[in-house]
Design brief:
globular; 8-stranded mixed sheet; alpha/beta; 642 residues; 7-stranded mixed sheet
Length: 642
């Protein structure tokens, strides 16, 4: 774990660490925590590295690399016995209640904890407490290294060099972990690109910090990192995986109004808006995406809807508060059967809520948003690979079934940095559904084009604006050509036509895209875990720990929330010995949806809504507790996270 004031390089230091590990062949998993303020408040980044694939965080920290006193104060107690803390010795005199950016309740808790042990309310007290728990302490004189680096590069203003402190903590970490410094230098070069002076400055300072840390006594620190042979992999953030999926999936118009954490996706697409296209394996043709920042979310969804009417694969991206504003435009797209895609990043609510924290509180809202009834696809991704491929699939669903389609992702995935296998651009084939070519008569008999023609599957041949076919769009109920029509029999026919498309989608979407089922090692599992979204990773990691304890669990991951795979879910849960719902919200929203669709109540729930992601340890411990006393209905609330 590394931490510091927001804007001081916490992200870059963690990404340099993860990048170096990935270059050496190791699997990594990183999670970023930050406040909604742009600069100042404390932020921290946890990175796990392993020779085997990892999908989640853990509760304890092996190595805490700090470059300010606040990180020590907040997180030192998370370092496990035998772990280590890297710090500048000048931090020792800092008084806990003099650090203005720490909330008073946190100050009170930490000081009270130290006082009970007879320790002073200073960083020195924190370090002494850590020592008592057999945590190794590694003092690194950051200021001295900064001054020596400045002298080497001929820079007289230390403030211009002091920004390397974050990299110094990473370099010291690698020395203690016995890691090859060459991987660190490669990662520094990749991070800072063409900025040669910045690269040189960081490499010089990193070498000094590395050598100093290497010379410190390692005491009982047993954690080491060694490179391994591996196949090529990608190190991606969640919103980057979505953005790449959109580009590969043919998205050619992306609209957005800035909002956390969705804006990062649009900015990534914009930075890669011109790209090479592959034609039979040969690159040469050029492609591009039009990315537009609109004046508000209403404009974002209506502009994307207009682009979809004109034939582009179009999307908008937002999170809860922005999606709330899009609802009227969503209803218009539903009435007009427009294949527009909305990527919705769920975060803590209601209102502004917790703009930069984790939650899965928007599921039921997304399923029913807007007044009246109309069909919509809702697809929930559970990891970065699903984020990529689902970003392609959601366009297929939108166009194949001609309805607004929502890709629901939670903030845990958006700001997670993970090493994943190479993605395959051609794994999901493009399907644009029933399209009418320019000047083609869809009926073959010279009759006028009926955009909303009645059909057994509810899907009418779609012509785009400018194709030579005349049709009307309005927010009112309409006839087959689009003319406003309030006749009661027409209303019944049109409502039936639109809603029939959900039955068509339920029939035609493959089972493997509706849910994932991870069986146990035994024929009858001790428990069936049910969840959706970003809890997939910690559940899969916790399952391995449970299996080692002789506890067999199976996992049902819901992916398609609408149309819901009712019969398949009912079949799985009817055989479950002990179903347990696991979600990052207060009420267990997916369990409520399951009860509504299948009439099966899941009474045991593991929930978390403190704004921090679930860890494998929390799930492991909670599942064990429920299994140990299965006769009681339990609602367990998880609380880990600073």
């Amino acid at each position: 774990m590394t931490g510091g004031p927001q804007g001081s390089g916490v992200d870059s230091s963690a990404n340099i660490f993860a990048g170096a590990c990935a270059l050496s062949g190791l699997w990594t998993f990183g999670s970023r925590e930050y406040y909604s303020s742009i600069k100042g408040p404390h932020s921290y980044f946890e990175v796990r590295a392993n020779s085997e694939r990892i999908r989640s965080q853990v509760n304890n920290v092996n190595l805490l690399a700090t470059f300010d006193a606040e990180t020590l104060i907040r997180h030192a107690d998370e370092v496990c016995p035998g772990g280590g803390i890297i710090y500048d010795p000048t931090f020792s005199a800092v008084e806990i209640d003099k650090v203005d950016t720490i909330e008073q309740p946190v100050v009170a808790r930490v000081k009270d904890r130290l006082a009970k042990q007879g320790l002073p309310g200073t960083v020195a007290g924190i370090l002494e407490e850590a020592k008592k728990r057999s945590v190794n302490l590694y003092p690194i004189p950051y200021n001295d290294i900064v001054a020596k680096t400045a002298a080497q590069i001929g820079e007289h203003q230390l403030s211009k060099v002091s920004r390397i402190v974050n990299v110094l903590s990473v370099a010291a970490s690698f020395a203690i972990l016995g890691f090859d410094v060459n991987y660190l230098n490669q990662s520094i070069a990749r991070t800072f690109g063409s900025k040669k002076k910045v690269i040189d400055m960081n490499e010089i300072g990193a070498k000094m910090a590395y050598d100093i840390a290497k010379g410190l006594p390692k005491q009982s620190f047993s954690y080491q990192l060694k490179p391994i042979q591996n196949q090529p992999r990608l190190l991606l953030m969640g919103n980057e995986a979505v953005a790449l999926g959109k580009i590969v999936g043919g998205c050619r118009v992306q609209t957005y109004y800035p909002i956390t954490p969705a804006a990062d996706e649009s900015e990534f697409i914009e930075s890669h808006e011109n790209f090479d296209l592959s034609d039979g394996g040969q690159l040469g043709k050029k492609g591009s995406v039009l990315v537009t920042q609109t004046e508000d979310e209403i404009a974002a969804i209506t502009m994307a809807t207009g682009a979809a009417l004109a034939g582009a694969r179009a999307a908008t991206s937002t999170s809860g508060p922005g999606f709330s504003l899009m609802v009227e435009g969503l209803g218009w797209a539903g009435m007009n059967e427009v294949p527009v895609v909305i990527t919705q990043y769920s975060r803590g609510g209601p209102s502004t809520g917790q703009p930069t924290r984790h939650e899965q509180g928007d599921l039921k809202f997304v399923l029913s948003a807007s007044h009246g009834e109309f069909p919509r696809i809702v697809l929930c991704s559970g990891d970065l690979e699903e984020c990529f491929y689902d970003a392609i699939r959601i366009f297929n669903y939108a166009e194949q079934f001609q309805m607004p389609s929502i890709h629901l992702i939670d903030k845990s995935m958006a700001n997670t940095s993970v090493t994943i296998p190479q993605l395959k651009a051609d794994l999901v084939k493009i399907n644009r559904g029933k399209m009418v070519e320019n000047n083609e008569s869809p009926n073959g008999n010279g009759e006028p084009y009926h955009r909303f023609a009645f059909s057994p599957d509810g899907v009418s041949p779609r012509a785009v604006l400018g194709s030579g076919h005349r049709f009307w769009n309005s927010g009112d109920e309409h006839d087959e050509m689009g003319h406003i029509e309030e006749d009661p029999f027409n209303r019944i026919s049109m409502m039936d036509k639109r809603m029939t498309k959900l039955e068509t989608a339920a029939r035609e979407i493959p089972e493997m895209e509706k849910f994932n089922f991870f069986p146990s090692s035994k024929k009858q599992a001790d428990a069936t875990l049910v969840s959706w979204g970003s809890t997939k990773g910690p559940i899969l990691d916790a399952m391995k720990l449970l299996e080692k304890d002789g506890i067999s669990v199976e996992f049902l991951q819901i992916r398609l929330a609408n149309p819901f795979p009712t019969e398949s879910v009912k079949e799985k849960l009817s055989k479950a010995k002990l179903p347990i719902d696991i979600e990052q919200n207060y009420s267990g929203q997916m369990a409520q949806v399951i009860a509504e669709k299948t009439m099966i109540d899941i009474n045991n729930k593991i929930l978390k809504y403190n704004g921090r992601p679930m860890t494998q340890d929390e799930i492991y411990e909670s599942v064990k507790r429920i299994i140990s006393n299965p006769t009681q209905n339990k609602r367990m609330v998880l609380t880990h996270g600073a």
